[in-house]
Amino acid sequence: MLFNSFTFILFFLPVVLAGSFVLARRYGATVCVFWALACSLFFYAWWNPRFMLLLIPSILFNYLMGIAIDRAAGRTRLIVLWASILANLTLLGYFKYANFLVDVANSTGLVSVELARVALPLGISFFTLQQIAFLVDTWKGDGNENHLPRYALFVCFYPHLIAGPIVHHKGILPQFRKAESFRYEPERVARGLTWFALGLFKKIIIADQCSLYVTPVFDAVAQGAHPGMASAWMGALAYTFQLYFDFSAYSDMAIGLALLLGINLPVNFLSPYKSGSIIEFWRRWHMTLSGYLRDYVYIPLGGNRKGPARRLVNLLLTMLIGGIWHGAGWTFALWGALHGVYLLINHAWRMLLEKLGVADWNRHGLYRALAWMTTFAAVVLGWVVFRAPSVHDALVIGRSLVGLGPGSGQLSGAQGNEFTFGVLGVVAAVAFFAPNSQELMNGESRLSWRPQWAWAWVTAAMFMVSLFSLHKPSEFLYFRF
Question: What ranges make up the beta strands (E) of 203-338?
Fold first, then answer.
């Protein structure tokens, strides 16, 4: 069941909200937790009921392991922690990487292993990471949850279950206990609906339209075509903005859906294409994943505590792990490694400027403009690797981007014409210069949201335009990861 589907918008969501508001008024937060949990499990089962055979045991296992870690003492706590982490990673590894590893092994010619295609359960990457963080924090003595329904809802709360944000138990579990959560509050509901409408509009009107110019280029290259420079840039930029608005849309809709039930989710997306460095980009893109990698990968590896050289190695390893987390394929590993190298260069450049005593260059407009252009170009190149079906295809498009490809002219289809470049120009202007959703919804812009008729009409207009344009719902891109 997609957020951008009639089934979700016209049936599932109204039933969830009506039930929550009625139960909250009569019984309080505890009963509403059971209701929200039942709705979340139904939402997940709608995709494929068989996936419940993985989700529910995973929740029960980690809940019990959390209790075991909390009650254990001494070395036993660490043993239980590592055993539970290993179990989670084994499960994730089988479903996400088994086929890829078998294909790699078979490609060497040394072995011949047959393995049926393993279906990737939706959201497994997200709910696995959340539960590992919960276990680690429990081991640190940073709290545990002894109420199974609340813990289960923390894991599978439907607004963030499939594609994040990755929530921390300290941030969300206390909200499930509050009496005022889940109650009907007109202003909060209006705010939540506006968040959702913004996301719905971004997904249907912007992201899905950009996809029309992505698929022809990348599919043609996968079939052996060599695009000209204009077509290569068309496909690369279209995917750059498709992914941007698709993920931004999901993040907005998740925040809005949770807010309708009185739950605040963390911001996960903050205009990353306005960044003036790769360091800044990763503070703005998939913010909860970046924070997770910092807290549970980079710092345990040693962070910056063991000297500059070790710090750079830790950065590279962290980004490589982040790339592999996104998917089973050489392109994801290469993309992660590429961003790791970007970060190494970025940190080295900053250290050089400090040694030269010119670290204040970033205050000058020309320097900031050049830094932004360089960052954006690096990000676009990275997205080509991320999207391409293979490393070879990524190299073909990469060569065409710099005019070294053998192709000439344009690929057939809608891409490669002035109209398409015009569309992407408008989309780029929105990404680069328009206030983002956080600025609009949290009072950081002159156009900020207020409980007024003007915003009510804007929200209604976004809903109507989106619904009338909703011919066939498309999955969010991060559902694949």
Answer: none
* Integer CA distances (angstroms), 213 to 206, 236, 365, 396, 448, in order: 12, 9, 33, 18, 32
Helix (H, G, I), strand (E, B) or coil at 346: helix
Euclidean distance between CA atoms 189 and 451, whole angstroms: 10
Residue 347 annotated in active site: no
Question: Quick one: tokens of 414?
Answer: 């809608």
Number of H helices, E strands in the chain: 22, 0
Q: Measure the CA angle with vertex 118, ends 117 and 122; round to 5°.
A: 135
The single residue of 169, 286, 326, 339 carrying the catalytic annotation is: 326
Q: CA-CA distance, 70 to 138, in Å (whole number)? A: 6
Cα(471)–Cα(328) distance, integer angstroms: 31
Q: Say which residue the tokens 């003007």 belong to.
A: 454
User: Over 90: is that where the pLDDT of 85 sits?
Assistant: yes
Q: How far is CA 2 from the centre of its chain?
A: 16
pLDDT tens digit string along 407-449?
Answer: 544 554 444 466 677 888 999 999 999 999 999 998 767 788 9
Spatial contact of 218 and 393, defined as CB atoms under 8 Å apart: yes
Read out DSSP for 135-187? HHHHHTTS-----HHHHHHHHH-HHHHTT-----HHHHHHHHH-TTTT---HH
What are the two backbone dihedrals, phi and then psi, of residue 376, each rounded to the nearest 5 degrees? -65, -40
Please give the model's pTM, rounded to 2 decimal places.
Answer: 0.92
d(CA 245, CA 431): 8
Q: How many CA atoms lie within 13 A of 374 on its CB side?
A: 14
